[in-house]
Amino acid sequence: MTQFRIPGPLRRLSDGQVTVTVQANDIASAITALDQRYPGFKDRLLDEKGELRQFVNLYLNDEDVRLGSGLKAKVAEDDEISIVPAVAGGSVQA
Amino acid sequence: MPKLLGLRCRECGAEYELQATHVCEMCFGPLDAVYDYEALKKVVSRERIEAGPKSMWRYRDLLPVEESTSVVTLGEGFTPLVKADRLGEELGLRNLYLKNDSMNPTNSFKDRVVSVAISWARANGFETIACASTGNLANAVAAYAARAGLECFVFIPTDLEPAKVSAISVFEPNIVAVRGTYDDVNRLCSQLLESTPWAFCNINIRPFYAEGSKTLTFETAEQLGWKLPDEIIIPIASGCQFVRHRQAVRELMDFGLVPDERVPKFTGAQALGCAPVYNAFHSDSPERVLPVKPKTIARSIAIGNPSDGIYVNRIAAETGGTVEAVTEEEIVVAIRLLARTEGIFTETAGGVTIGVLAKLARAGRWNGDETVVAYVTGHGLKTADVLASANGHARRVEIDPTLKSFRENVTI
After folding, report:
1. How does B319-330 read in b/e, with b if 16+ C-beta sit within 10 Å?
2. For chain A, which end, N or C, has fewer CB atoms within 10 Å of the first or last residue's CB respectively?
3. Nearest CA in chain B to A5
4. A45-88 pLDDT, tens per residue?
5. What is the pLDDT of residues B2-11, one digit of tens each?
6. Cβ within 8 Å of residue B260, ≥6 positions away
7. What's the complex ipTM?
8. Strand partners, B6
Protein backbone atom coordinates (compact mmCIF):
# COMPACT_ATOMS: atom_id res chain seq x y z
CA MET A 1 0.00 0.00 0.00
CA THR A 2 1.13 3.53 -0.75
CA GLN A 3 0.97 5.99 2.11
CA PHE A 4 -0.16 9.64 1.95
CA ARG A 5 1.11 12.08 4.56
CA ILE A 6 -1.62 14.66 5.16
CA PRO A 7 -0.70 18.21 6.30
CA GLY A 8 -2.54 19.93 9.16
CA PRO A 9 -4.79 22.14 7.02
CA LEU A 10 -6.22 19.10 5.19
CA ARG A 11 -6.76 16.79 8.13
CA ARG A 12 -10.33 17.88 8.55
CA LEU A 13 -10.92 16.02 5.31
CA SER A 14 -9.21 12.87 6.55
CA ASP A 15 -11.00 12.69 9.92
CA GLY A 16 -7.80 13.87 11.60
CA GLN A 17 -5.67 11.07 10.14
CA VAL A 18 -2.01 12.05 9.64
CA THR A 19 -1.41 9.20 7.22
CA VAL A 20 -3.77 7.43 4.84
CA THR A 21 -2.88 4.32 2.83
CA VAL A 22 -4.25 3.64 -0.63
CA GLN A 23 -3.87 1.08 -3.40
CA ALA A 24 -2.52 2.71 -6.55
CA ASN A 25 0.06 2.40 -9.31
CA ASP A 26 0.73 6.08 -10.02
CA ILE A 27 0.25 9.46 -8.34
CA ALA A 28 -2.92 10.29 -10.26
CA SER A 29 -4.63 7.04 -9.30
CA ALA A 30 -3.42 7.45 -5.73
CA ILE A 31 -5.16 10.83 -5.55
CA THR A 32 -8.32 9.30 -7.00
CA ALA A 33 -8.21 6.54 -4.39
CA LEU A 34 -7.62 9.07 -1.60
CA ASP A 35 -10.57 11.12 -2.81
CA GLN A 36 -12.82 8.06 -2.91
CA ARG A 37 -11.99 7.30 0.69
CA TYR A 38 -12.10 10.92 1.89
CA PRO A 39 -14.05 13.04 -0.61
CA GLY A 40 -12.71 16.55 -1.20
CA PHE A 41 -9.01 15.83 -1.65
CA LYS A 42 -9.11 15.90 -5.43
CA ASP A 43 -10.53 19.42 -5.46
CA ARG A 44 -7.90 20.62 -3.04
CA LEU A 45 -4.97 19.09 -4.88
CA LEU A 46 -5.88 19.40 -8.55
CA ASP A 47 -7.17 22.29 -10.65
CA GLU A 48 -9.94 22.16 -13.22
CA LYS A 49 -7.52 20.85 -15.85
CA GLY A 50 -6.55 18.01 -13.55
CA GLU A 51 -3.09 19.45 -12.91
CA LEU A 52 -1.46 19.96 -9.56
CA ARG A 53 -2.53 23.26 -8.02
CA GLN A 54 0.06 26.04 -7.83
CA PHE A 55 0.23 26.09 -4.04
CA VAL A 56 0.38 22.35 -3.58
CA ASN A 57 3.67 20.50 -3.52
CA LEU A 58 3.67 16.72 -3.70
CA TYR A 59 6.75 14.75 -2.74
CA LEU A 60 7.19 11.11 -3.66
CA ASN A 61 9.64 9.79 -1.08
CA ASP A 62 10.95 13.32 -0.53
CA GLU A 63 11.40 14.10 -4.25
CA ASP A 64 9.27 16.90 -5.73
CA VAL A 65 7.03 15.15 -8.30
CA ARG A 66 7.20 18.22 -10.57
CA LEU A 67 10.89 17.51 -11.01
CA GLY A 68 10.05 14.02 -12.28
CA SER A 69 7.09 12.53 -14.13
CA GLY A 70 4.51 14.58 -12.24
CA LEU A 71 1.15 12.90 -11.71
CA LYS A 72 2.20 10.03 -13.99
CA ALA A 73 5.00 9.01 -11.64
CA LYS A 74 4.72 5.34 -10.71
CA VAL A 75 4.25 4.46 -7.07
CA ALA A 76 5.14 1.21 -5.38
CA GLU A 77 4.09 -0.63 -2.23
CA ASP A 78 6.22 1.17 0.32
CA ASP A 79 6.24 4.62 -1.24
CA GLU A 80 5.18 7.68 0.68
CA ILE A 81 3.49 10.70 -0.92
CA SER A 82 3.72 13.87 1.18
CA ILE A 83 1.34 16.76 0.58
CA VAL A 84 3.02 20.02 1.57
CA PRO A 85 1.52 23.48 1.14
CA ALA A 86 3.80 25.89 -0.71
CA VAL A 87 5.27 28.76 1.26
CA ALA A 88 4.34 31.99 -0.46
CA GLY A 89 3.74 35.41 0.92
CA GLY A 90 2.89 38.72 -0.60
CA SER A 91 0.10 40.59 -2.23
CA VAL A 92 -1.65 39.39 -5.32
CA GLN A 93 -2.48 42.65 -7.04
CA ALA A 94 0.09 44.25 -9.28
CA MET B 1 -6.00 50.72 19.03
CA PRO B 2 -4.44 47.68 17.33
CA LYS B 3 -3.60 48.36 13.69
CA LEU B 4 -3.55 44.70 12.62
CA LEU B 5 -6.98 43.32 11.91
CA GLY B 6 -6.13 39.75 11.02
CA LEU B 7 -4.89 37.56 8.18
CA ARG B 8 -6.51 37.18 4.79
CA CYS B 9 -6.00 34.63 2.03
CA ARG B 10 -4.63 36.26 -1.06
CA GLU B 11 -6.35 33.73 -3.32
CA CYS B 12 -9.84 33.16 -1.93
CA GLY B 13 -10.19 36.00 0.57
CA ALA B 14 -10.89 33.75 3.58
CA GLU B 15 -10.15 35.60 6.82
CA TYR B 16 -8.30 34.36 9.87
CA GLU B 17 -7.45 35.69 13.30
CA LEU B 18 -3.89 36.86 13.88
CA GLN B 19 -1.81 33.75 14.49
CA ALA B 20 1.37 31.98 13.41
CA THR B 21 0.12 30.44 10.20
CA HIS B 22 0.81 31.07 6.54
CA VAL B 23 -1.54 28.80 4.61
CA CYS B 24 -5.24 29.12 3.90
CA GLU B 25 -7.09 26.01 5.05
CA MET B 26 -9.56 26.44 2.22
CA CYS B 27 -7.32 26.73 -0.81
CA PHE B 28 -3.69 26.57 0.37
CA GLY B 29 -3.23 30.17 -0.78
CA PRO B 30 -0.82 32.39 1.16
CA LEU B 31 -2.03 34.59 4.00
CA ASP B 32 -1.32 38.31 4.29
CA ALA B 33 -1.45 40.59 7.30
CA VAL B 34 -4.39 43.00 7.09
CA TYR B 35 -3.98 46.51 8.48
CA ASP B 36 -6.56 49.05 9.53
CA TYR B 37 -5.62 51.35 6.65
CA GLU B 38 -8.32 53.91 7.42
CA ALA B 39 -6.96 54.45 10.91
CA LEU B 40 -3.36 54.48 9.64
CA LYS B 41 -4.16 57.09 7.01
CA LYS B 42 -4.92 59.55 9.82
CA VAL B 43 -1.48 58.95 11.30
CA VAL B 44 1.08 58.27 8.57
CA SER B 45 2.90 61.29 7.15
CA ARG B 46 6.30 62.22 5.77
CA GLU B 47 6.94 64.37 8.85
CA ARG B 48 6.19 61.54 11.25
CA ILE B 49 8.48 59.20 9.33
CA GLU B 50 11.31 61.74 9.09
CA ALA B 51 11.13 62.34 12.85
CA GLY B 52 11.59 58.61 13.49
CA PRO B 53 14.77 56.64 14.17
CA LYS B 54 17.48 56.36 11.49
CA SER B 55 16.58 52.72 10.88
CA MET B 56 13.80 50.91 9.09
CA TRP B 57 11.69 51.39 12.23
CA ARG B 58 10.92 54.92 11.05
CA TYR B 59 8.23 53.09 9.00
CA ARG B 60 6.89 51.31 12.03
CA ASP B 61 3.31 52.41 11.33
CA LEU B 62 3.41 50.29 8.16
CA LEU B 63 4.91 47.21 9.81
CA PRO B 64 2.97 44.41 11.57
CA VAL B 65 4.12 45.32 15.07
CA GLU B 66 1.79 47.10 17.49
CA GLU B 67 2.71 50.31 19.32
CA SER B 68 3.02 48.47 22.62
CA THR B 69 5.51 45.91 21.29
CA SER B 70 9.17 46.39 22.11
CA VAL B 71 11.08 45.64 18.94
CA VAL B 72 14.20 43.51 18.56
CA THR B 73 16.59 45.74 16.68
CA LEU B 74 20.25 46.05 15.79
CA GLY B 75 19.71 49.28 13.86
CA GLU B 76 18.76 47.62 10.57
CA GLY B 77 17.73 49.54 7.51
CA PHE B 78 18.11 53.13 6.37
CA THR B 79 21.10 51.88 4.42
CA PRO B 80 22.83 54.16 1.92
CA LEU B 81 21.25 54.91 -1.44
CA VAL B 82 24.28 55.90 -3.48
CA LYS B 83 24.27 57.58 -6.86
CA ALA B 84 26.46 55.36 -9.00
CA ASP B 85 28.06 57.80 -11.44
CA ARG B 86 31.04 55.69 -12.43
CA LEU B 87 29.07 52.49 -12.96
CA GLY B 88 26.39 54.58 -14.64
CA GLU B 89 28.94 55.99 -17.03
CA GLU B 90 30.04 52.49 -18.05
CA LEU B 91 26.44 51.49 -18.63
CA GLY B 92 25.13 54.71 -20.17
CA LEU B 93 22.87 55.54 -17.23
CA ARG B 94 22.97 59.10 -15.88
CA ASN B 95 20.62 58.45 -12.95
CA LEU B 96 21.67 55.09 -11.61
CA TYR B 97 21.36 54.42 -7.88
CA LEU B 98 22.41 51.50 -5.71
CA LYS B 99 20.57 50.67 -2.53
CA ASN B 100 23.41 49.16 -0.53
CA ASP B 101 21.71 46.74 1.82
CA SER B 102 24.96 44.95 2.56
CA MET B 103 25.35 47.73 5.16
CA ASN B 104 22.85 46.04 7.46
CA PRO B 105 23.94 44.62 10.87
CA THR B 106 24.54 41.10 9.53
CA ASN B 107 25.41 42.40 6.08
CA SER B 108 22.33 41.40 4.18
CA PHE B 109 18.79 42.49 3.43
CA LYS B 110 17.49 39.73 5.70
CA ASP B 111 17.93 41.83 8.83
CA ARG B 112 14.82 43.75 7.83
CA VAL B 113 12.51 40.77 7.71
CA VAL B 114 14.06 39.09 10.73
CA SER B 115 13.80 42.17 12.94
CA VAL B 116 10.06 42.25 12.23
CA ALA B 117 9.60 38.47 12.54
CA ILE B 118 11.39 38.11 15.86
CA SER B 119 9.72 41.19 17.31
CA TRP B 120 6.36 39.69 16.41
CA ALA B 121 7.29 36.23 17.69
CA ARG B 122 8.61 37.48 21.03
CA ALA B 123 5.55 39.66 21.58
CA ASN B 124 3.35 36.65 20.85
CA GLY B 125 4.97 34.36 23.35
CA PHE B 126 7.32 32.26 21.22
CA GLU B 127 10.44 31.07 23.00
CA THR B 128 12.22 29.47 20.04
CA ILE B 129 12.94 31.02 16.67
CA ALA B 130 13.78 28.88 13.66
CA CYS B 131 14.26 29.19 9.91
CA ALA B 132 15.09 27.35 6.70
CA SER B 133 17.90 29.24 5.06
CA THR B 134 20.40 29.51 2.25
CA GLY B 135 22.68 31.28 4.73
CA ASN B 136 21.88 34.96 5.00
CA LEU B 137 18.58 34.37 6.75
CA ALA B 138 20.17 31.95 9.23
CA ASN B 139 22.84 34.55 9.92
CA ALA B 140 20.26 37.21 10.69
CA VAL B 141 18.02 34.88 12.70
CA ALA B 142 20.95 33.68 14.83
CA ALA B 143 22.05 37.25 15.55
CA TYR B 144 18.60 38.61 16.37
CA ALA B 145 17.71 35.57 18.49
CA ALA B 146 20.88 36.24 20.49
CA ARG B 147 19.89 39.88 20.81
CA ALA B 148 16.41 38.90 22.00
CA GLY B 149 17.63 36.10 24.26
CA LEU B 150 15.55 33.46 22.52
CA GLU B 151 16.34 29.85 21.66
CA CYS B 152 17.30 29.40 18.04
CA PHE B 153 17.31 26.57 15.50
CA VAL B 154 18.58 27.21 12.00
CA PHE B 155 18.25 24.69 9.18
CA ILE B 156 20.78 25.03 6.37
CA PRO B 157 22.02 22.90 3.48
CA THR B 158 25.31 21.12 4.32
CA ASP B 159 27.19 22.79 1.44
CA LEU B 160 26.92 26.44 2.52
CA GLU B 161 29.83 28.80 1.95
CA PRO B 162 32.36 28.54 4.86
CA ALA B 163 32.15 32.28 5.56
CA LYS B 164 28.41 32.05 6.04
CA VAL B 165 28.72 29.07 8.38
CA SER B 166 31.24 30.97 10.55
CA ALA B 167 29.05 34.05 10.65
CA ILE B 168 26.11 31.93 11.81
CA SER B 169 28.04 29.77 14.30
CA VAL B 170 29.43 32.67 16.30
CA PHE B 171 25.96 33.40 17.69
CA GLU B 172 25.73 29.79 18.95
CA PRO B 173 22.35 28.80 17.55
CA ASN B 174 21.45 25.14 17.16
CA ILE B 175 22.51 24.43 13.59
CA VAL B 176 20.83 21.59 11.73
CA ALA B 177 22.77 20.95 8.52
CA VAL B 178 20.57 19.06 6.10
CA ARG B 179 21.99 16.89 3.32
CA GLY B 180 20.05 18.41 0.44
CA THR B 181 19.22 21.64 -1.36
CA TYR B 182 17.45 24.65 0.13
CA ASP B 183 14.21 23.30 -1.30
CA ASP B 184 14.73 20.07 0.64
CA VAL B 185 15.44 22.06 3.81
CA ASN B 186 12.34 24.16 3.26
CA ARG B 187 10.14 21.14 2.71
CA LEU B 188 11.46 19.48 5.86
CA CYS B 189 10.78 22.61 7.91
CA SER B 190 7.26 22.91 6.47
CA GLN B 191 6.62 19.39 7.72
CA LEU B 192 8.22 20.10 11.10
CA LEU B 193 5.84 22.97 11.85
CA GLU B 194 3.22 20.67 13.21
CA SER B 195 5.44 18.94 15.73
CA THR B 196 7.33 21.95 17.11
CA PRO B 197 6.10 25.01 19.02
CA TRP B 198 8.56 27.18 17.12
CA ALA B 199 8.24 30.35 15.10
CA PHE B 200 9.82 29.59 11.72
CA CYS B 201 10.57 33.07 10.44
CA ASN B 202 10.07 32.32 6.78
CA ILE B 203 7.31 29.73 7.14
CA ASN B 204 4.56 29.92 9.77
CA ILE B 205 5.19 33.57 10.68
CA ARG B 206 5.84 34.52 7.05
CA PRO B 207 2.86 36.92 6.83
CA PHE B 208 4.65 39.14 9.37
CA TYR B 209 8.24 38.41 8.31
CA ALA B 210 7.61 39.28 4.66
CA GLU B 211 6.34 42.75 5.58
CA GLY B 212 9.82 43.84 6.65
CA SER B 213 10.90 43.80 2.99
CA LYS B 214 8.75 46.81 2.21
CA THR B 215 11.07 49.13 4.12
CA LEU B 216 13.75 48.80 1.44
CA THR B 217 11.45 50.44 -1.07
CA PHE B 218 10.06 52.95 1.43
CA GLU B 219 13.62 54.10 2.08
CA THR B 220 14.49 54.25 -1.59
CA ALA B 221 11.58 56.60 -2.21
CA GLU B 222 12.41 58.75 0.82
CA GLN B 223 16.10 58.93 -0.11
CA LEU B 224 15.20 59.98 -3.65
CA GLY B 225 13.37 62.94 -2.08
CA TRP B 226 9.99 61.21 -1.76
CA LYS B 227 9.94 60.14 -5.37
CA LEU B 228 9.67 56.78 -7.06
CA PRO B 229 12.33 55.61 -9.51
CA ASP B 230 11.47 54.61 -13.08
CA GLU B 231 12.71 51.06 -12.67
CA ILE B 232 13.89 48.81 -9.85
CA ILE B 233 16.15 45.75 -10.32
CA ILE B 234 15.56 43.12 -7.64
CA PRO B 235 17.16 39.69 -7.17
CA ILE B 236 14.67 36.82 -7.12
CA ALA B 237 14.87 33.81 -4.85
CA SER B 238 11.39 32.86 -3.62
CA GLY B 239 10.04 36.09 -5.10
CA CYS B 240 8.76 37.18 -1.70
CA GLN B 241 10.58 40.50 -1.49
CA PHE B 242 9.75 41.36 -5.11
CA VAL B 243 6.06 41.08 -4.30
CA ARG B 244 6.42 43.11 -1.12
CA HIS B 245 8.23 45.91 -2.92
CA ARG B 246 5.21 46.19 -5.19
CA GLN B 247 3.04 46.44 -2.09
CA ALA B 248 5.37 49.11 -0.68
CA VAL B 249 4.90 51.23 -3.80
CA ARG B 250 1.15 50.86 -3.48
CA GLU B 251 1.30 52.02 0.14
CA LEU B 252 3.59 54.95 -0.69
CA MET B 253 0.99 56.09 -3.21
CA ASP B 254 -2.11 55.31 -1.12
CA PHE B 255 -0.75 57.15 1.90
CA GLY B 256 0.17 60.15 -0.22
CA LEU B 257 3.87 59.86 0.65
CA VAL B 258 4.94 60.22 -2.98
CA PRO B 259 3.29 62.37 -5.66
CA ASP B 260 3.98 59.85 -8.43
CA GLU B 261 1.11 58.40 -10.39
CA ARG B 262 3.17 55.91 -12.31
CA VAL B 263 4.31 52.62 -10.81
CA PRO B 264 8.01 51.86 -11.39
CA LYS B 265 8.90 49.00 -13.69
CA PHE B 266 9.73 45.94 -11.61
CA THR B 267 12.55 43.88 -13.05
CA GLY B 268 13.76 40.60 -11.58
CA ALA B 269 17.25 39.10 -11.65
CA GLN B 270 18.13 35.41 -11.51
CA ALA B 271 21.18 33.25 -12.08
CA LEU B 272 20.80 31.03 -15.15
CA GLY B 273 21.88 28.12 -12.93
CA CYS B 274 18.64 28.54 -10.99
CA ALA B 275 16.19 30.45 -13.14
CA PRO B 276 12.70 28.95 -12.78
CA VAL B 277 11.03 32.38 -12.76
CA TYR B 278 13.03 33.65 -15.74
CA ASN B 279 12.26 30.44 -17.64
CA ALA B 280 8.54 30.83 -17.05
CA PHE B 281 8.52 34.57 -17.82
CA HIS B 282 9.91 33.91 -21.28
CA SER B 283 7.73 30.87 -21.94
CA ASP B 284 4.19 30.62 -23.29
CA SER B 285 2.79 30.19 -19.79
CA PRO B 286 4.42 32.61 -17.32
CA GLU B 287 1.89 31.53 -14.70
CA ARG B 288 3.39 28.05 -14.58
CA VAL B 289 6.70 28.21 -12.76
CA LEU B 290 8.25 24.77 -12.98
CA PRO B 291 10.79 23.83 -10.31
CA VAL B 292 14.45 23.23 -11.16
CA LYS B 293 17.45 21.73 -9.39
CA PRO B 294 19.65 24.73 -8.53
CA LYS B 295 23.25 24.78 -9.65
CA THR B 296 24.79 28.21 -9.18
CA ILE B 297 27.36 30.09 -7.14
CA ALA B 298 24.57 32.52 -6.22
CA ARG B 299 23.51 30.22 -3.43
CA SER B 300 21.68 32.83 -1.38
CA ILE B 301 19.06 33.04 -4.14
CA ALA B 302 19.21 29.40 -5.27
CA ILE B 303 15.59 28.43 -4.72
CA GLY B 304 14.46 25.90 -7.29
CA ASN B 305 10.79 25.97 -6.33
CA PRO B 306 10.00 29.66 -5.77
CA SER B 307 6.61 29.99 -4.15
CA ASP B 308 5.97 33.58 -5.25
CA GLY B 309 7.27 33.02 -8.77
CA ILE B 310 3.95 33.46 -10.55
CA TYR B 311 3.37 36.75 -8.76
CA VAL B 312 6.79 37.99 -9.78
CA ASN B 313 5.95 37.33 -13.39
CA ARG B 314 2.56 38.96 -13.09
CA ILE B 315 4.03 42.10 -11.49
CA ALA B 316 6.96 42.30 -13.91
CA ALA B 317 4.60 42.05 -16.87
CA GLU B 318 2.00 44.47 -15.53
CA THR B 319 4.52 47.16 -14.63
CA GLY B 320 6.46 46.90 -17.89
CA GLY B 321 9.46 45.30 -16.23
CA THR B 322 11.14 42.05 -17.20
CA VAL B 323 12.96 39.07 -15.73
CA GLU B 324 16.53 38.53 -16.89
CA ALA B 325 19.23 36.03 -15.97
CA VAL B 326 23.03 35.85 -16.12
CA THR B 327 25.68 33.14 -16.37
CA GLU B 328 28.06 32.15 -13.59
CA GLU B 329 30.85 34.02 -15.31
CA GLU B 330 28.73 37.14 -15.71
CA ILE B 331 28.03 37.06 -11.96
CA VAL B 332 31.73 37.21 -11.10
CA VAL B 333 32.40 39.85 -13.76
CA ALA B 334 29.58 41.95 -12.30
CA ILE B 335 30.94 41.64 -8.74
CA ARG B 336 34.26 42.97 -10.03
CA LEU B 337 32.61 45.69 -12.10
CA LEU B 338 30.70 47.01 -9.09
CA ALA B 339 33.80 46.90 -6.91
CA ARG B 340 36.01 48.59 -9.52
CA THR B 341 33.59 51.39 -10.32
CA GLU B 342 31.80 52.08 -7.04
CA GLY B 343 33.88 50.64 -4.22
CA ILE B 344 31.11 48.28 -3.19
CA PHE B 345 31.88 44.60 -2.63
CA THR B 346 28.76 42.49 -3.04
CA GLU B 347 28.06 38.80 -2.74
CA THR B 348 27.05 36.57 -5.64
CA ALA B 349 23.37 37.54 -5.38
CA GLY B 350 24.43 41.17 -5.82
CA GLY B 351 26.52 40.02 -8.77
CA VAL B 352 23.34 38.62 -10.27
CA THR B 353 21.54 41.94 -9.82
CA ILE B 354 24.37 44.04 -11.21
CA GLY B 355 24.95 41.49 -13.97
CA VAL B 356 21.34 41.79 -15.07
CA LEU B 357 21.52 45.58 -14.83
CA ALA B 358 24.61 45.59 -17.07
CA LYS B 359 23.12 43.10 -19.51
CA LEU B 360 19.92 45.08 -19.93
CA ALA B 361 21.79 48.40 -20.20
CA ARG B 362 24.07 47.06 -22.92
CA ALA B 363 21.09 45.63 -24.77
CA GLY B 364 19.71 49.18 -24.99
CA ARG B 365 16.84 48.93 -22.53
CA TRP B 366 17.24 52.55 -21.36
CA ASN B 367 17.83 55.84 -23.14
CA GLY B 368 20.02 57.00 -20.24
CA ASP B 369 17.88 59.52 -18.39
CA GLU B 370 15.70 57.07 -16.47
CA THR B 371 16.14 56.77 -12.74
CA VAL B 372 17.13 53.15 -12.20
CA VAL B 373 17.72 51.64 -8.76
CA ALA B 374 19.43 48.28 -8.19
CA TYR B 375 19.03 46.54 -4.85
CA VAL B 376 22.41 45.23 -3.63
CA THR B 377 21.29 42.81 -0.95
CA GLY B 378 24.39 41.21 0.59
CA HIS B 379 28.08 41.73 1.32
CA GLY B 380 30.89 40.25 -0.74
CA LEU B 381 32.78 38.73 2.19
CA LYS B 382 29.94 36.22 2.49
CA THR B 383 30.90 34.61 -0.81
CA ALA B 384 34.51 35.69 -1.23
CA ASP B 385 35.42 32.11 -2.18
CA VAL B 386 34.08 32.60 -5.71
CA LEU B 387 36.78 35.15 -6.41
CA ALA B 388 39.63 32.98 -5.14
CA SER B 389 40.32 31.27 -8.43
CA ALA B 390 40.44 34.60 -10.20
CA ASN B 391 42.98 36.18 -7.82
CA GLY B 392 45.78 35.53 -10.26
CA HIS B 393 44.28 38.19 -12.49
CA ALA B 394 44.42 40.87 -9.81
CA ARG B 395 47.01 43.61 -10.16
CA ARG B 396 49.35 42.05 -7.67
CA VAL B 397 53.14 41.80 -7.52
CA GLU B 398 55.29 40.35 -4.80
CA ILE B 399 58.54 42.16 -4.00
CA ASP B 400 61.44 42.29 -1.53
CA PRO B 401 61.42 45.18 0.96
CA THR B 402 63.96 47.17 -1.07
CA LEU B 403 63.72 50.18 -3.35
CA LYS B 404 65.47 48.19 -6.03
CA SER B 405 62.92 45.44 -6.00
CA PHE B 406 60.11 47.99 -6.09
CA ARG B 407 61.61 49.77 -9.11
CA GLU B 408 62.15 46.51 -10.91
CA ASN B 409 58.63 45.24 -10.40
CA VAL B 410 56.27 48.20 -10.23
CA THR B 411 55.44 50.63 -13.00
CA ILE B 412 54.37 53.98 -11.60
Report:
1. bebbbbbbebeb
2. N
3. B191
4. 998 899 888 888 899 998 899 888 899 999 998 999 999 988 75
5. 899 999 998 8
6. B227, B228, B252, B253
7. 0.83
8. B34
A90–B30 C-beta distance less than 8 A: yes
* Facing residue for B22 by CB, picked from A59, A89, A94: A89
In 10 A of CB B364, how many CB atoms?
Answer: 8
The residue type of A4 is F
| A47: in domain | yes
Measured between CB atoms, does A68 come within 8 Å of chain B?
no
Distance CA B357, CA B280 (A): 20
Range of the domain at A76: 2-85
Per DSSP, the three-state class of B85 is helix
Chain-chain contact of A62 with B184 (C-beta, under 8 angstroms): yes
Do residue A53 and residue B28 have CB atoms under 8 angstroms apart? Answer: yes
Could you count the other beta carbons within 10 Å of the beta carbon of residue A67?
A: 17
In order along its 412 residues, chain B shows pLDDT tens digits of 789 999 999 888 999 999 999 988 888 888 999 999 999 999 999 999 999 999 999 999 999 999 888 999 999 999 999 999 999 999 999 999 999 999 999 999 999 999 999 999 999 999 999 999 989 999 999 999 999 999 999 999 998 888 899 999 999 999 999 999 888 999 999 999 888 999 999 999 999 999 999 999 999 999 999 999 999 999 999 999 999 999 999 999 999 999 999 999 999 999 999 999 999 999 999 988 999 999 999 999 999 999 899 999 999 999 999 999 999 999 999 999 999 999 999 999 999 999 999 999 999 999 999 999 999 999 999 999 888 765 555 678 889 999 999 999 998 8
Let me know if residue A92 belongs to a domain.
no
Q: Do A89 and B307 touch (CB under 8 A)?
A: yes
Best probe of the A interface among B182, B187, B250, by most A CBs < 10 A, is B187
For residue B171, give every residue at least 6 positions away whose Cβ sits within 8 Å of its Cβ, in sequence order, or none.
Answer: B142, B143, B145, B146, B152
Chain A residues within 8 A of B239 when measuring between CB atoms:
88, 90
B97 strand-pairing partners: B83, B373
A32 touches chain B (CB under 8 A): no
**Nearest chain A Cα distance for residue B93, angstroms:** 27
Q: Is residue A93 part of a domain?
A: no
Residues in A touching B206 (Cβ below 8 Å): 87, 89
Q: Is A56 helix (H, G, I), strand (E, B) or coil?
A: strand
Tally of domains within chain A: 1
Contact assessment for residue B119 and residue B71, using Cβ atoms and an 8 Å cutoff: yes
